[in-house]
């Protein structure tokens, strides 16, 4: 247990559905991250939130919409996804990093998403 | 743009062997490098974190080295065990909270 939980663990959705992924951290961190892990591709950073402010959007399509209501919770809202969006979506948290300071990220178990 | 490459992509060894996993990165201006372990369908577990000023870190049977100038890191696993079977990921941190991952090495240790 890393102190980062994700729900649901598995999700199957059609291309016209709307769903949300949830991440919660119990570590007192103030930065949270969404990553995408596709088959045969390196882990890709999607979004970064520092102190509830989005500081990074790594050219992610608008069908993915993040929300960070507080420093302990992070959501990823999904709508009109494509089959190629099927992947493992990982959430991580850390103490907020500065431009030159890296604080170790702790990862959740991920949500395995299948888009039909 | 930082690119991280891990070789080999997959490795199968008998139990007890010592082995080396390789990681290379194109932009040597990193602040640190981290090795993770990922079990199938699971999240990432941090193994070792090497700051850019350090040359190596050790934890139990694991030893990671960093040669920042040549853009390389190695993860050495001594006396491998079946429980070591997993995917090992290397990631480097550049300025701006960007953690760039390699594609991973899938390790199988056979009893």
Draw up the topology in text:
The complex is a heterodimer of chains A (116) and B (111).
Chain A: E1 4-7, E2 10-13, E3 18-25, E4 31-37, E5 44-50, E6 53-57, E7 64-70, E8 73-79, E9 87-94, E10 106-107, E11 111-115
Chain B: E1 4-7, E2 10-14, E3 19-25, E4 32-38, E5 44-51, E6 56-59, E7 62-67, E8 72-77, E9 86-94, E10 98-101, E11 105-110
Parallel strand pairs in B: 2-11
Antiparallel strand pairs in B: 1-3, 3-8, 4-5, 4-9, 6-7, 7-8, 9-10, 9-11
What are the salient characteristics of this protein?
heterodimer; A: 116 residues; mainly beta; 7-stranded mixed sheet; 4-stranded antiparallel sheet; 11 strands; globular; B: 111 residues; 6-stranded mixed sheet; 5-stranded antiparallel sheet; 59% strand
- The H/E string of chain B reads EEEEEEEEEEE
**Per the principal axes of the C-alpha atoms, what is the gross shape of chain B?**
globular
Q: Biggest interface between protein chains, with counts per chain?
A: A-B, 30 and 25 residues
Quaternary arrangement of the chains shown?
A: heterodimer
Largest sheet of chain B: 6 strands, mixed
Q: Terminal Cα separation of chain B, in Å?
A: 41 Å
- Rounded to an integer, what's the Rg of chain A over CA atoms? 13 Å
Helices of chain B, by number, come to 0
Low-confidence stretches of chain A: none
Brief digest:
Chain A has 116 residues and is an all-beta fold.
What does this protein look like?
The complex is a heterodimer of chains A (116) and B (111). Chain A has 116 residues and is an all-beta fold. Chain A has no helices and eleven strands. Chain A has strands spanning 4-7, 10-13, 18-25, 31-37, 44-50, 53-57, 64-70, 73-79, 87-94, 106-107, 111-115. In chain A, the strands form two sheets. In chain A, strands 2, 4, 5, 6, 9, 10 and 11 form a seven-stranded mixed β-sheet that branches. In chain A, strand 5 (44-50) and strand 6 form a beta hairpin. The radius of gyration of chain A is 13 Å and the shape is globular. The N and C termini of chain A lie far apart (31 Å). Chain B is an all-beta fold. Chain B has no helices and eleven strands. In chain B, the strands form two sheets. In chain B, strands 2, 4, 5, 9, 10 and 11 form a six-stranded mixed β-sheet that branches. In chain B, strand 4 and strand 5 form a beta hairpin. The relative contact order of chain B is 0.34. Classes of the chains: A mainly beta (116), B mainly beta (111). The interface between A and B is medium-sized, with 30 and 25 residues.
